[in-house]
Write a structure and sequence with these properties.
The structure is a homodimer.
Chain A: E1 8-14, E2 19-25, E3 27-33, E4 38-44, E5 48-53, E6 56-60, H1 64-78, E7 84-89, H2 94-99, E8 107-111, H3 115-124, H4 126-129, E9 137-140, H5 144-149, E10 155-161, H6 176-185, E11 186-195, H7 203-216, E12 219-226, E13 234-241, H8 251-257, H9 266-271, H10 277-283
Parallel strand pairs in A: 7-8, 7-10, 8-9, 10-11
Antiparallel strand pairs in A: 1-2, 3-4, 4-5, 5-6, 11-13, 12-13
Helix pairs in contact in A: 6-7
Chain lengths: ~280, ~280
């Protein structure tokens, strides 16, 4: 018998277990059952630290930039001067980190239902969570839908950085009622983005997300990015607005922060909205 | 004890086993050790039939369209009238199927080193292999490099649809010597494409592939596509030519066959060449 211990392996299955991905865990930094979900922080030599909720990868340090840049900068650069921003979900702080790169931003509300997510990410994931302590950021530990339903004409940009729509905390964030509340919480010329799953293993959920959103917003535009940390790597986001198309309003603003960007650039913005034929047909 | 048998699982590991993907095998159609490699055909309820060489997925029926359309139509539509085409590798027939959609094509040489790949794909994978019997197609079972080194100014389009560069049959197809032979086998205005790995788990191999190619071709342009059947889903291809940029020469030709295309379209062609910042920097 070998004296080496068997390494831990994290298996993440999709499609009733018919397909999935795995990575080797070198170290478990933290595992906790909160009031809402199980929160894990692992370490992997290939991926850096991994943050998972209920056994589903939320981010890994190596590839989170692709997701966070694309969910944040597409709406942020589509607004002419974003000052007040609302982020729903995203307790890891990655989206907040990107939002705060925009010098026009004065105030960010972060609504994360689970205070343990905030505490654990602050402790173990400073690469995404360090900006949660920024003085422009206010953290609200409550249900995102309840929060946004109290707001009217308040935000320039709303970003929904939620868990999957299947169950639990994220479920109410994929409904017409929620999207309508977001629309009403936006100022004139306000813009919205949300994660919208993938067309490879969750095509039905993705379609339903867009159907609900189209009931609430006159302008809904799907866009895509390579997000290798998620199932299939083919991630879809939704841009929406009452009145603003997702065009870059001032490209000189990109030049100001381009040294901090690893995925997003001027050309990626427009090309992200170009969809392969099968996805066009699915969402038409 | 349950009477149900444990289902078979196919595990495909990358990065020294630190990460990987898996799928459940419902049926093994064929497994054979040929002179060159182990050839497997599996069936999966989620992915259709899967064709693997030495334990590495070459294709699955559900998502092969993305890979085959993007490796074939980007060069084919960049040429003003492709008549003679050479495909190196690609014994599954998927690339040939796409090439033959172009009515201008008169002759296709397919150079697949392993005759068992051809026979097994013809038997078990008609969805990609049925066009291997087309009268315009000539199959040559020999080393791709040896074949192309005998050819001079003969082809309008050359497509290298090879295995990975790590070992075995595909290794000689990622060298300056091979790329130079391809350049010399092209006619004036000839164009070239090749699979070039992924930047997520094989960034070094991808870089090396482009370095070698740039020694042989004055014009080398990386492009990308979502290919969910491969590691990370983020697949990179290389377009190259002596004198022709990868611009669509006649968009009316796309309209003629667009009913048969599920990934490629007019706008995808150009946007495929727009790269995320990290990849731009890696390949500059």
């Amino acid at each position: 018998m070998s004296k080496e211990s068997t390494p831990l392996q994290f298996n993440e299955a999709f499609c009733k277990g018919n397909v999935g991905s795995f990575f080797r865990i070198d170290k478990v930094d933290c595992t906790k059952q909160s009031k809402f979900q199980r929160i894990d922080i692992f370490e992997s030599s290939e991926l850096g630290k991994i943050f998972a909720l209920d056994g589903v990868t939320m981010l890994n340090e190596r590839w989170e930039f692709a997701y966070h840049e694309m969910i944040a900068h597409v709406p942020m650069f589509s607004h002419k001067s974003p000052k007040n921003v609302l982020v729903i979900g995203g307790g890891d702080g990655g989206t907040i980190r990107e939002v705060l790169k925009h010098p026009s931003v004065e105030k960010v509300d972060l609504v994360e239902i689970d205070p343990d997510v905030i505490e654990i990410c602050k402790k173990y994931l400073p690469s995404t969570a360090s900006k949660l302590n920024d003085q422009k950021v206010s953290i609200h530990n409550e249900d995102g839908k309840n929060f946004v339903m109290r707001k009217h004409s308040e935000y320039d940009v709303i970003i929904v950085d939620s868990t999957d729509p299947y169950k639990g905390a994220g479920k109410s964030l994929f409904t017409e009622e929620f999207y309508s509340a977001c629309r009403d919480a936006l100022k004139e010329n306000g813009v919205f983005s949300a994660e919208a799953e993938n067309p490879v293993y969750d095509g039905k959920e993705m379609e339903r997300c867009f159907e609900e959103m189209k009931k609430a917003f006159p302008i809904v535009r799907p866009y895509k990015a390579f997000v290798p940390m998620y199932p299939s790597g083919f991630w879809v986001f939704a841009y929406a607005s009452k009145d603003v198309e997702p065009k870059i309003k001032d490209s000189s603003r990109i030049n100001q922060i381009k040294g901090t960007l690893f995925y997003y650039n001027l050309e990626i913005h427009d090309s992200a909205f170009v969809l392969p034929t099968f996805l066009r047909k699915l969402l038409d």
